[in-house]
Amino acid sequence: MTLVTLENVWKQEENQTILKNISFSLDGSSHVGMKMNEKETATLFELVCGEQIPSSGKIEREAGLILQDRSDDGQYEPLTVQQYLRFFKKIADFQKPLEAFISIFSLSDVWHKKIKDLTKEQKKRVSLFRIYLFSPEIVLLENPLNTLSDEGIELYIQALAYVQNQGIATLITSNYIEDLLLVSKQVYRYRSTIGLETTDLVEEPDGLQNEKVENEGVAPKNIFKVSCKMADKLIFFSPDEIDYIESINSVSHIRIEEDSFPTDLTMNELEEKLRTFGFFRCHRSYLVNLQRVSELISYSKNSYTLILKGSAQAKLPLSRNRLDEMKKLLTL
């Protein structure tokens, strides 16, 4: 059953457009991620919850209970975790014992600790537990993985996966696509100039990589530069200048530090041309310069992330079925 549908929704405040061209729907199995900033997130969440009326467009809402967890939400600091969650258990009329869920939300070691003494990532899991007690149909989460440690991300993803597996739809926003790939089945990107656009950042099915035609033995080329057309000129980049290449709406974007340059070459063409320069197709939508990779992180047995040198924000997904090939290339 469709829980909420937004169709060509716009929202303006004081002659300023906050959101435009917002169209998507959620059902019980939807786990949607959207890259957008704090102001856009606040407005979107209020529209979905019915706290604001759109300037134009249509919102149809069938969901009974929609709850949200914003980055700046507070908690009752003097209470222990146990006291805090028992308080909300009573309000939510949650019938099962809380103790049966402590390990799912990884709170066993802080159960009797005061909220004020918890770390930020522990507070995040407490908030998620509190929301789960109310059995909502849709949960809205803002930047849930932002500033968490690697261990904190892993534990939060485990807890969130449990919530999602209970038939609760999730709409998650973040400043980083890479975070959304860890917690969402479908990822959108919001651009203030054109509105909400879908991405092709979906995991490829197992076995697809095995069906690829192997191009072993490709002769190295002496010279190759990637060309990008910017206005009335062509810009050329040497392979060693490039951090990684990202496919957005089937357009390849050259990423060099914080800059992005679109190119007419497809990901398959770039993969073929850059393979001999140490580039590796770590995901259907990403081609990474292996010389830039500094860390490989596994948040779960099915989730891998590559961290690039020199930029803590550069995190690329690594498809599970490409892990062995990458290890072989790196002689691990």
Automatic annotation (TrEMBL):
Keyword DNA-binding: yes
Keywords: DNA-binding
Family annotation (SUPFAM superfamilies): P-loop containing nucleoside triphosphate hydrolases (SSF52540)
Leader sequence residues: none
Domain of life: Bacteria
PROSITE patterns per UniProt: ABC_TRANSPORTER_2, HTH_LYTTR
UniProt-listed InterPro entries: ABC_transporter-like_ATP-bd, LytR-like, LytTR_ABC, LytTR_DNA-bd_dom, P-loop_NTPase
Domain ABC transporter as annotated: residue spans: 4-217
GO molecular function, one term: DNA binding
HTH LytTR-type domain span: 226-332
Protein name per its UniProtKB record: LytTR family transcriptional regulator DNA-binding domain-containing protein
